[in-house]
Amino acid sequence: MSQPSTPIRQDGPPPVARWVVAAAIIGTIAIALGAFWLSFTALTDLAARAGIDPAQAWVWPLIVDGIIVVATISVVALSPYGRRATWYPWALLAAGAIVSIAGNAAHAVVAADSTLPRLLAAAIAAVPPAVLLAITHLTVELTSRTHPHTSGINEAVASAAAVNGTAARSRRELARQRHEAGWSNKRIAQQLGVHPSTVGRWLADLTQPPPAPPDGPHPPAGVDMTRSPDVVQGAAHGH
Q1: What's residue 48's pLDDT?
Q2: Of 46, 73, 167, 207, which sits with the fewest C-beta atoms within 10 Å of its C-beta?
Q3: Averaged pLDDT score across all residues of the chain
Q4: Domain ranges of the chain
């Protein structure tokens, strides 16, 4: 007789409250827009001074600062897949940040008032791109913390496997529980260390209806099928 399944315990800190995340995102978006605008105007003027057509100069800061935003999101999204998956977004993020900060500093040196030291002007101009980099990463990190942590998932799966018999069965049951809680197949796969298609196959197997019993003659009411064949045959014919 199989023993009942033990509840899966989730370790780790609780998720960040959604209202906290919403308030923080509103503030970070406002700061990011201000930082982006300051960096955008400086880099646009620098591109025009470098010989780019003024009608097209505005595209250059979009490319430079856009890399920072896209690379930051990519780093956080690919972090569950290890360093091999994140090294390229990290490289793009570093390159975009260096170019943006250097460009803003160079523009400050070129366009600064003569009464202000050039080094100080460069340091002030480097603040907006640095803030844009930090605030974008903060926003992505906040949104990624709105879901419950399951840092102890491997221990929970091992405990369930010891009770139910096999690790595969406990992982399938855990996948079913997560699916019923509204988790996506991709998120379940990340937590269990399998491919999303594996999770989909598990859920399909768990939701299949049981096979129908084979057709055949049914014993008469009151006949005990555990008795010997002769006794059952006699009871069926009324003897």
Answers
A1: 92
A2: 207
A3: 75
A4: 18-144, 153-207
Q: Is 32 in contact with 136 (CB distance < 8 Å)?
A: yes
Burial 25-58 (b: 16+ CB within 10 A, else e): eeebeebbeebbebbbebbbbbbbeeeeeeeebe
Q: How does DSSP classify residue 173?
A: H
What is the amino acid identity at position 26?
Answer: I
Radius of gyration of the chain measured on its C-alpha atoms: 32
102: amino acid identity, one letter = A
Rounded to two decimals, the pTM is 0.50
How many DSSP H helices and E strands does the chain contain?
10, 0
List the structure tokens of 225. 């099928």
In angstroms, the CA 81 to CA 84 distance is: 8
